[in-house]
Each structure stands twice: as structure tokens, then as C-alpha cells.
From TrEMBL:
The complex comprises the extracytoplasmic solute receptor protein and the two transmembrane proteins. This is TRAP transporter small permease protein. Residues 33-174 form the Tripartite ATP-independent periplasmic transporters DctQ component domain. Part of the tripartite ATP-independent periplasmic (TRAP) transport system. It comes from Microbaculum marinum. It holds the Pfam family DctQ. One of its GO terms (molecular function) is transmembrane transporter activity. It is found in: Cell inner membrane. It is a multi-pass membrane protein. InterPro entries: DctQ (IPR055348), TRAP_DctQ (IPR007387). Signal peptide: none annotated. Keywords: Cell inner membrane, Cell membrane, Membrane, Transmembrane, Transmembrane helix, Transport. One of its GO terms (biological process) is C4-dicarboxylate transport.
């Protein structure tokens, strides 16, 4: 799942569709944070009345953004890596090293997903205070929206990252096979 960096063609097919959907979600979420915080600043400094729920809602949106987009950041090569030595290796050696390093990362992510279900069982009764406050001020009773809606972001984000890593490894393996199968260039340069 490589989306093509600057100067490269935009992805097409499923990858392009997925990337566009994710970018739209990200833009909408960031716009929501911006609007909520602008309303909070105006309410606090112009009307001397604070929206006590604004920061909590923005924090939950930011948690979702973080976990939803870690896979996309991986896909685009935007995660921090220390590759000062690996960039000097051959493509095959880089792939082997990446595959070896991916094993504990994938194991950790799978454990996070598996253990999240135990976590869900423990905290399913906890509600989101900000949503309860907003709903109660409108209707007179609490909404009772579970905090699991926030915690699910970890499970979904880890699952997406597993998919991104596996797709990346498969794509790199296929590229290596194609490179091996291509005849050497007979073009003379100089």
C-alpha cells in the first residue's frame, strides 16, 4: 500500500479509494477539532462561559485520528525510522531485515488486538462524561454512550497497521521477484 510520494502518480483502485476515504475522515476530524476549539475560545473570552466538554471531545477525536492514521503514515513512509545503515544494503537484504523486524511488531499489534477484548469487558459500563453532559443539558437525561467508542480506536488502528505491514511486505516481495526475473539491461551508459 504505497500511495506514491511527491512527484509520483496517485494510487488507483482499492488503495486509492482507501487513501481518499481516510484523508477525508482525517480532514473532517481536524475540522471538527478546529471548530470546537474556536467555539471554546470565543465562549471563554468573549462570553466568559467555558464549554466544559470541548477539550474532552477534542481529545477523543485526536485519539481516533492517531490510531486511524498510523497505518496510513506507515504506508506513506512517514513513521520515524533509523535507517542510516540499512539504506546501504541491497534491496534483498533490506527486505529480509524488514521482514525480521516486522515479526515482533506484528506480534505486539496482534496481542494488542486480542487483549483489547478483555479490556472492553472491564470498561464497557463506563460512559463518556462530555457526551453525557451535552445530552443531559439538552434532554434532561444522560446519553450513556460507552467509552468503548474511544477504546475501539486502538483495536481498529492496530488492525489497520497489521494490514498495512503485511501488504507492504507482500508488495516488496513481489517487486523483488519481478526484479530478479527481469533480464539485465544491455544499455550502455557513460
Amino acid at each position: 500500500m504505497h500511495d506514491g510520494g511527491p512527484g509520483q502518480a496517485a494510487p488507483s483502485g482499492f488503495v486509492g479509494w482507501y487513501t481518499r476515504i481516510m484523508m477525508s475522515i482525517g480532514a473532517s476530524a481536524m475540522a471538527a477539532i478546529l471548530i470546537i476549539m474556536m467555539v471554546q475560545v470565543v465562549a471563554r473570552y468573549v462570553f466568559n462561559a467555558s464549554l466544559i466538554w470541548a477539550e474532552e471531545i477534542c481529545r477523543y477525536i485526536l485519539v481516533w485520528i492517531t490510531f486511524l492514521f498510523i497505518g496510513l503514515a506507515f504506508q506513506r513512509g512517514e513513521l520515524v525510522t533509523v535507517d542510516i545503515l540499512t539504506i546501504k544494503l541491497s534491496a534483498k537484504a533490506q527486505f529480509i531485515l524488514k521482514s525480521i523486524v516486522s515479526i515482533p511488531v506484528l506480534a505486539f499489534l496482534v496481542l494488542m488486538v486480542i487483549n483489547s477484548y478483555d479490556f472492553f469487558g472491564r470498561f464497557h459500563m463506563q460512559t463518556i462524561p462530555a457526551v453525557d453532559f451535552i445530552w443531559e443539558s439538552i434532554t434532561g437525561h444522560a446519553a450513556g454512550v460507552s467509552i468503548l467508542w474511544v477504546y475501539h480506536s486502538v483495536t481498529i488502528g492496530c488492525t489497520l497497521l497489521v494490514v498495512h505491514i503485511l501488504v507492504s511486505l507482500v508488495a516488496e516481495a513481489r517487486a523483488l521477484v519481478r526484479m530478479r526475473d527481469e533480464p539485465p539491461s544491455t544499455q550502455i551508459t557513460g
